[in-house]
Amino acid sequence: MKLLLVNIKELLQVREEAPSKVAGTDMNILPTLKNAWLLLDGDCISDFGTMQQLPKISVEKTIDCTGKIVLPTWCDSHTHIVYAGNREQEFVDRINGLTYQQIAENGGGILNSAKKLQNTSEADLYEQSAARLEEVIRMGTGAIEIKSGYGLTTEAELKMLRVAKKLEEKYPVAVKTTFLGAHAVPNEFKGNKAGYLNHIITDMLPKVANEKLADYVDIFCEEGYFSVEDTHQLLGAANSYGFVPKIHVNQFNAIGGVKAGVVHDALSVDHLEVLTEADIEVLQNSNTMPVALPSCSYFLSIPYTPGRKLIDAGLPLALATDYNPGSTPSGNMNFVVATACIKMRLTPEEAINAATLNGAYAMGLSASHGSITKGKAASVIITKEIPSYGYLPYAFGSNCIDTVIANGKIIA
Ligand code: NIG
Ligand code: FE
């Protein structure tokens, strides 16, 4: 179907030739077209221009976007949306004074989610996860990365990844999957982290590779979870199966995981709430995308990733939700963009670049997502009537979205 959007007040992130990512001062440049039209043909962007030069095109449907802004759908490069139940009780425990780490040490946290997930059927897990995916698509997400890591047994990890793959089949969004078996040491291997790591490498990894269930491999490199040594071991093994890493690092402590990620050519290093000068230097000489997760900082009341500092150091930055039951029970990219502006001092231009173009890079989707470019996916957000794009992060609690189009499909 040919779908024509006309009278667009401002079309954002318009790139004739899209760069794979933007960094440093370029992040503050958001190319736009005012009073524009956009033609979507099936699942692709076909053409665009200004209303003064609208050619005669015969189309199946036209949408009048008077007063509305159109932008590419959000690229959420870091989520854990396949999970069972919730951890509302731990949220209350934290209000009452326990820390996130104390809850994990008492058997809560990731192990709590793993227990729930192991006891949930694949069909039920799919239904719960599909509801979350539908919710985030309505909030403007058109490409999403989904991690395993709440299974922690071979069977349950494969179950999670199969559910993620089924979501990819059923929904008009791009999905990338990441194997995160090294998320925590399960009780069966208590006191034997080396044994669990060996189990991941010799049993889980070959099966994940064989069934082609994951695009990337992740590890939680953090005190009390997996060390830098463990990270080298796992990423080295993952490399022999052709897996590129995307890793959790520097959430609570800087232990050298950023360098480990860069050494293994990680596509992204995510969290970075605690960052050293040495980490920044390592990133400056790499192709690795730093990813900030501001709604995790908000929910856990931990520091925000120093995004301003990263960009001022000439680096790129991507923004993602980290949607998961423990540290971020929200998949709202609009809130992420607003929080990056409010708490990390990103400009609206920088935040929008971080949540579109750079988010696409952080999940290997630069060729198809993240900008309004001919041939890319017909995935766009049409806002309600708003004064300007800066209003999106400014009105941080409002739903400014009127319509979402995902792969040419109108979601409403
Ligand atoms: O990205 N930090 C590690 N993993 C997840 C949260 C895990 C959980 O609490 O369930 C995160 O924040
Ligand atoms: Fe995460």
Number of helices, where a helix is a run of at least 4 consecutive DSSP H or I residues: 15
Please tally the β strands and state the result. 16
- Rg, Å, rounded: 21 Å
Principal-axis shape equals globular
Query: What is the assigned CATH homologous superfamily of the largest domain?
Result: Metal-dependent hydrolases
Strand content: 15-25%
Ligand inventory reads: N-(iminomethyl)-L-glutamic acid, fe (iii) ion
What is the CATH T-level topology of the largest domain? TIM Barrel
Outline the structure in words.
This protein has 412 residues and is α/β, with parallel strands linked by helices. The chain folds into 2 domains: 2-72 and 372-411, Urease, subunit C, domain 1 (Roll); 75-361, Metal-dependent hydrolases (TIM Barrel). 35% of the residues lie in helices and 22% in strands. The protein contains 15 helices and 16 strands. Strands 1, 2, 3, 4, 5, 14, 15 and 16 form an 8-stranded mixed β-sheet that branches. Helix 7 (228-240) links the parallel strand 9 (216-221) and strand 10. Helix 6 (193-210) runs parallel beside helix 7 (228-240) and helix 12 (333-344) packs across helix 13. The radius of gyration is 21 Å and the shape is globular. 53% of the residues are buried. The mean pLDDT is 98. It binds N-(iminomethyl)-L-glutamic acid and fe (iii) ion.
